[in-house]
Design goal:
alpha/beta, Rossmann fold, seven-stranded mixed beta sheet
Length: 426
């Protein structure tokens, strides 16, 4: 393939260089682009990926039924990937350089055993494009609110376009069929979210009179459900948008006397609680701050209390390998985050607290289905999302984010677990 000498940003839709500077700009790195071409051809051959070039040509022989990666602008794609690896891969999708008729199938091929995409003898190539997360995004007290603002304060109306009426933004628990696979559809999503919340509250032993601390409010559904059990709930969030809507929902439900939402960093949590619950929040904490996060859980937990976490997890060796890597997801979706492994959670508790992991139940297939429903709904509501002021680059970014996450769970690269922590009492 000939690498052109001058590259320009795609013109099929406007890419605002002020808002999306790294999407509007196509880097020029001929040698790295040539390396990216060789690696892409290798992946296509070994993974059975059908890489289609303009005019219908194939990059490498592939079965007709193989998942398709369709390159509209091969040169731009290769230069972006050569310059930035997976960050360039994501930015190339945002720019419209490539598409896939079945995005999930193509991404699942790439998400399966990602450590083997680059051959062992060429792992040194990662040094050409791997960046470390910027210090300005580490989830310190000063940075955490900004990180949360960049995602959760985008717009309550945006999230309402693809979440069910419970406004729950985490993995649901669906009924299962005879093959134990989740049976999911949009009409059952709200019920599946309540099933998830109830399982977590049961795991934490929440009942009438329980003192409950929730770290990470979301839009208030868990706090509502706990209050309806007769518990007294304090819920912490750093999102101003979530704070306002959660308070309104709690007041409208008539449980404001039992559920309070505070704009507060987890590190500043006060009081003693019989149950501490936190749903998919530890991923935003960042690995350097896990000891302090778990120490906070230990500090506020009353004697005999229980901590129930829902956490996205990944294999421990992959967590170690990726923990110092700046990824597309960190750059554009969840700044400052790090997905833990279950051993990392257990080790952090054992080293820094009296808490111990006593139970963990994984159900990653249910998250894949949750994400499928969100992605389909988000795509269906494209006109409404546009009307809210979110341009096509943003919409493609979120389609890739939801699709990449779904593929991660379908491939087994990611999992989600409900975890019970209790203190070793002496």
């Amino acid at each position: 393939m000939t690498i052109v000498t001058e590259l320009i940003a795609p013109q099929d839709f406007h890419v605002d260089p002020g808002r999306w500077p790294d999407v509007a700009r196509v880097p020029r790195v001929p040698l790295r682009a040539a390396v990216a071409l060789r690696l892409l051809r290798r992946v296509a051959k070994q993974r059975g990926l059908r890489v289609e070039l303009p005019g219908g040509r194939l990059l490498a022989p592939a079965p007709a039924q193989a998942p398709v990666l369709r390159l509209h602008r091969p040169e731009a794609f290769l230069h972006r990937v050569g310059a930035g690896g997976l960050i360039g891969f994501g930015e190339s999708y945002q720019a419209g350089d490539w598409d896939a008729p079945d995005l999930i199938a193509a991404l699942t091929v790439l998400a399966t055993a990602p450590q083997t995409l680059v051959p062992t003898g060429a792992q040194w190539l990662r040094r050409l494009y791997v960046q470390r997360p910027p210090a300005t995004e580490l989830s310190t007290v000063d940075n955490a609110r900004t990180n949360i603002h960049r995602h959760y304060d985008l717009s309550n109306e945006l999230f309402a376009q693809f979440l069910d009426p419970t406004m729950t933004y985490s993995a649901a628990v669906f009924p299962t069929g005879r093959d134990h696979a989740p049976v999911a559809d949009w009409d059952g999503l709200a019920t599946a979210q309540h099933r998830k919340i109830d399982q977590l509250l049961d795991l934490a032993g929440v009942g009438p009179g329980s003192r409950v601390l929730e770290i990470g409010t979301g839009w208030g559904e868990l706090a509502l459900r706990a209050a309806r059990r007769g518990a007294r709930v304090v819920s912490l969030t750093l999102s101003a948008e979530q704070l306002a809507l959660a308070r309104r929902r709690i007041a409208e439900a008539g449980v404001a006397d039992r559920a309070e939402v505070r704009l507060c960093d987890y590190r500043a949590a006060e009081g003693q609680y019989d149950a501490v619950v936190s749903v998919e929040m530890v991923e935003a904490v960042g690995r350097p701050f896990w000891p302090g996060y778990f120490a906070t859980l230990d500090r506020v937990l009353a004697p005999g209390g229980r901590v129930a976490l829902q956490a996205i997890t990944m294999p421990h060796e992959r967590m170690i390998a990726s923990s110092a890597t700046y990824t597309w997801i960190l750059k554009y979706i969840f700044p400052g985050g790090q997905i833990p492994s279950l051993p990392a959670i257990a080790d952090s508790c054992a080293r820094h607290t009296g808490l111990r992991v006593v139970r963990a139940q994984a159900y990653g297939a249910h998250y894949a289905e949750t994400l499928r429903l969100w992605r389909e709904r988000f795509t269906e509501r494209a006109h409404q999302v546009s009307a809210l002021g979110f341009d096509q680059v943003f919409q493609r970014m979120w389609q890739l984010y939801l699709g990449y996450s779904e593929a991660g769970f379908r491939s087994g690269y990611l999992d989600v677990q409900q975890i019970l922590l209790t203190r070793e009492e002496h």
